[in-house]
Amino acid sequence: MKPRRLGKTNLQVSEIGFGGEWLERHPEEEGIALIEYASAQGINILDCWMADPKSRNIIGKGIHKNRDKWYIQGHIGSTWKDGQYYRTRDMAYVRPAFEDLLARLQTDYIDLGMIHYVDSEQEWEQIQHSEYLDYIMQLKAAGTIRHIGISSHNPKVAMKAAQSGYVEMILFSINPAFDMLPASEDIDVMFAKKFDDDLKGIDAGRARLYKTCEENDVGITVMKPFAGGRLFDEKRSPFGTALTPVQCIHYALTRPAVCAVMCGYDNKAQVDAATAYEAADNTEKDYASVLANAPAHAYRGQCTYCGHCKPCVANLDIAMINKFYDLATMQPEVPAAVQSHYELLEKTASACIGCHACESRCPFGVKIAERMKKTAELFGC
């Protein structure tokens, strides 16, 4: 596995990383084995934005044998409230959640302490003079976090972070589809219904962000490199054509300042598909010829199963419901296996009360309540 220097942190991270968001879907033994397998393939950086105890326990046990070989992105402000994920800067939740992260990961330090999920420029400014940031600085001074990072989908926020002087790395959403979209705090503007001719290439603001990060020696780790798997399917791809994992990874790694691509894994085969990048030739990596001949489509209303729609007042697993809906609609008829797995969910889409609260938290403008209604009709429950 080829290492890359993560900007001014000087950490030598594997260019293929581990996004841990799907660990809660698996039995503990499978999750631990998956982390250990990834480590054996040379992966050494793992992102833990999840607040749920199960995911954190799996990661703790998965890295326990070789903690010193792992670099952990641990998010500060991702908390657990009433059995659900809760994003907040309220120290009544932030401090206990971070202490819980240390305990469950069985470690006394986090390599990359992440300012969790800031997409609003106003929120960025509010954080600058807050008890929340004071706490992060205290953790850094004590060595409990070794470096300060931030996660964001908004290039304007990420730009401010890159120029702040204290943020050392950024977890940012990068793939060919997202890169065509201009920055905005208004989701409806950021994800336009139709692209103009001048939006067929990378947005100038995003290009400036990557260059600014490079100039300020702020490393980037990449989330959502596959757009939730949609880029692998020409029917669901916003380009009308399919890309491979290797092509998506190469696209991300060719952006300035990018050091590691955090891929999500459900099984060892998906780890193999990502790490195959290391042995791929230039023909296999070539995404440019694919995109050059692809029609440009808008990328709005597409669920990437990121989980930021939580918490749901009806306690629905919205991301998983959307995933089963997408899997089902790819076929002429609903596959029996998909129907069965859907019905095994603790709550199905029919339990949605249509409050739309989740939609304000979705980075991609998905009309979640409408999709829940369609899903309930499709599966009959």
Features:
8-stranded parallel β-barrel; 381 residues; two-stranded antiparallel sheet; 36% helix; 2 domains; globular; alpha/beta; 15% strand; TIM Barrel
CATH level-two architecture of the largest domain: Alpha-Beta Barrel
CATH class of the largest domain: Alpha Beta
Binned, the helix content reads 25-40%
**So how many helices?**
15
Q: How many domains in all?
A: 2
| Secondary-structure content class | alpha/beta
Instruction: Give the uncertain stretches in residue-range form.
Output: 186-199
Series of secondary-structure elements, N-terminal to C-terminal:
EEEHEHEEEHEHHEHEHHEHEHHHHHH
* Main sheet properties: 8 strands, parallel, barrel
Strand order of the largest sheet: 3-4-5-8-9-10-11-12
- The whole-angstrom Rg is 20 Å
> The CATH topology of the largest domain is what?
TIM Barrel
Task: Tally the beta strands.
Answer: 12
End-to-end separation? 46 Å
Would you identify the CATH H-level superfamily of the largest domain?
A: NADP-dependent oxidoreductase domain
Q: Give the quaternary arrangement of the chains.
A: single chain
Strand content: 15-25%
Overall morphology: globular
Describe the protein's architecture and organization.
With 381 residues, the chain is of the alpha/beta class. The protein contains 15 helices and twelve strands. The protein has two domains: 290 residues, TIM Barrel (Alpha-Beta Barrel); 62 residues, no CATH class. An eight-stranded parallel beta barrel has the order 3-4-5-8-9-10-11-12, surrounded by seven helices. The N and C termini lie far apart (46 Å). 45% of the residues are buried.
